[in-house]
Structures are given as C-alpha cells and as structure tokens.
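Design request, tokens follow.
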C-alpha cells in the first residue's frame, strides 16, 4: 500500500485486499482455533487416560498384596484392553508375571511376559521380558524355545546377559563347546571390574575342568 495515498485511497485498498484475501484469512483463523482446541482436547484426554490407568494399576497392586489374584486380573485385563499404550499396563504385566510364578502358574507368567514383549514401549522392558521368558523356557527344559527367545535380544546393553543365558542353555544340553563360546562372548562385553565377570569365569573354569 502506498504510504502517501489519501485516507480514501487507503480505505479502498484495504477493501480490495480483504475481498481478495479475506476468505483465506478466515479459514486460517478457523484452522488455528480448531488446532488449539484439538490440541487441548488431546492433552486433556491423555491426562484422563493416564489417571485412569494409574488408578487401575494401584487397584491391581492392592489386590495382589491382599492375595486376591482374581480381582487383580480383572483390573489388569481392563488395563490391557483400554490403556495398553500406558506404562502402567507394562508394570502390571510384570507384576502379574511375578505373582504367577509365586503361584507356580508358569503358563500365565509366560503369557504376561509375552504381552510385554509385544506391547511395551521401551526396548529395555522388552529385553527384560525376553530374558525372563527364555529363563522360564530353560527351566522347563524347552531348550529350542529358550534359545530362540534368547536370540531375540536386540541391544548391546543386554548382549552380555543374553550371551550368558545362551551359555546356560547350551550347557543344559551338554553342548560344552557352544556353552564356552557363549560365556566367553558374554565376558568380553563386560567392564573389567564388573562382578559378573567372576561368575562367567567360574562357569568357564567348570567347563574346562569337566
């Protein structure tokens, strides 16, 4: 717009600009308001979901502490169906797996660990579930399944633990050469002062002695 134009000319210029661009401006404002409202709605829904998931997890924890596994299972099932993406569902799955083991219900414990492997958002939680599941399979002498699960390890942070578990599986099968190799691989990834290094050395010494 010409800064030297008269007030009447400026008015006409503004009217012409608004005729050409007014619709786009109004649409932009509407979209902006909708986005703001939508964003607030999403945040509110997230807060509500987290609060409800937390409440269900607390209920399940209380039921487990009281020894009421049936009611705990109901709360956890609700967590799984409605709030599977929240960390509370994963925490509950681990708690239920532990409780199932205490009750010697191995199949239920494995099912809860498998749920974590599929649904957990954090890789570390998935890795822990794989280690525990593989150990349970080893305890049942399901060596092929245990080895298959231990091979699912994905991160370097857990590599030593998975390698050691593979060594235990091979040793249980009487495959001492493979066991020694797995233990050695586990030992190589540890820091020099890591206390697990002594355990692995003892396992290697036992194999060498045998």
């Amino acid at each position: 717009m010409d800064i030297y134009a008269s007030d009447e000319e400026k008015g006409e210029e503004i009217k012409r600009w608004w005729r050409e661009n007014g619709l786009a401006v109004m649409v932009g404002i509407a979209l902006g308001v909708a986005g703001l409202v939508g964003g607030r709605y999403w945040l509110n829904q997230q807060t509500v979901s987290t609060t409800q998931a937390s409440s269900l997890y607390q209920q399940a924890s209380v039921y487990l502490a009281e020894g009421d596994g049936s009611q705990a299972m109901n709360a956890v099932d609700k967590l799984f169906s409605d709030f599977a993406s929240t960390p509370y569902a994963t925490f509950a799955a681990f708690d239920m797996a532990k409780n199932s083991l205490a009750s010697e219900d191995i199949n239920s414990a494995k099912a809860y660990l498998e749920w974590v492997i599929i649904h957990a958002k954090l890789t570390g939680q998935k890795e822990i579930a794989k280690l525990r599941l593989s150990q349970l399979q080893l305890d049942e002498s399901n060596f092929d399944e245990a080895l298959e699960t231990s091979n699912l390890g994905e991160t370097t942070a857990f590599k030593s633990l998975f390698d050691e578990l593979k060594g235990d599986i091979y040793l249980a099968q009487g495959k001492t050469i493979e066991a020694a190799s797995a233990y050695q691989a586990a030992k190589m990834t540890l820091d020099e002062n890591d206390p697990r290094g002594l355990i692995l050395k003892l396992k290697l010494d036992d194999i060498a002695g045998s």
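Comment from the thread starter after seeing the answer: thanks! The longest helix spans residues 7-65.
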